[in-house]
Design goal:
It is a single chain. This protein is of the alpha+beta class. It has 2 domains: 3-59, no CATH class; 71-147, 3-Layer(aba) Sandwich (Glutaredoxin). 43% of the residues lie in helices and 12% in strands. The chain is built from 7 helices and 4 strands; from the N terminus they run H-H-H-H-E-H-H-E-E-E-H. The chain has a 4-stranded mixed beta sheet with strand order 2-1-3-4, with helices on one face. The longest helix has 12 residues, at 20-31. The protein starts with a helix and ends with a helix. It binds FE2/S2 (inorganic) cluster (FES). FE2/S2 (inorganic) cluster (FES) binds at residues 76, 78-81, 117-118, 120-121, 124, 126.
């Protein structure tokens, strides 16, 4: 368990109760997922029941209880992206990295998720890697895009 890191994150939020989502975001950004021991420590330190913390985690797709890759790839499969061939883009990424959606590469460099409409329908099909959005992605572009993260 990495107590100093969690303490540092908690220290950024003097008012804990209204900022639980922000705290969880920071913890996930650091560890690339939400480790159970750290969550229990946050619960103890903030006196927020662990059940309440888990109900928030389960409500937001963004949070993960499983370790994620250093680079998080989200392929939008919302209607506009689906119509413009998002499944083929997902297949190309999946084939390139040899993982299925919901999985991470063995070296933990990448994880692959599907999302529903990220609000960039005019860019369909859209892919988000970490904070970067790629629009009108074709399966052929996948190798070039992923190379930037190797
Ligand atoms: S459906 Fe993909 S961004 Fe809206």
């Amino acid at each position: 368990m990495d107590i100093p890191t969690v303490d540092k994150i908690l220290g950024k939020f003097p008012e804990v109760k209204g900022n639980l989502i922000g705290i969880l975001h920071e913890v996930q950004n650091h560890f690339h997922y939400l480790p159970e021991e750290e969550l229990r420590y946050i619960s103890k330190k903030t006196r927020i029941p662990i059940t309440q913390i888990y109900s928030i985690i389960n409500f937001y797709n963004r949070f993960s209880l499983k370790p994620k890759g250093e680079n998080e790839i989200c392929v939008c499969l919302g209607t506009a992206c689906h119509v413009k061939g998002a499944e083929k883009v997902l297949d190309a990424i999946s084939g390139n990295l040899n993982i299925q959606k919901g999985e991470s590469t063995d070296d933990m460099r990448f994880s692959l998720e599907e999302v529903r409409c990220i609000g960039a329908c005019s860019l369909a099909p859209a892919v988000v890697i970490n904070e970067e959005t790629y629009g009108q992605v074709s399966p052929k572009q996948v190798t070039t895009i992923l190379k930037q993260y190797e």
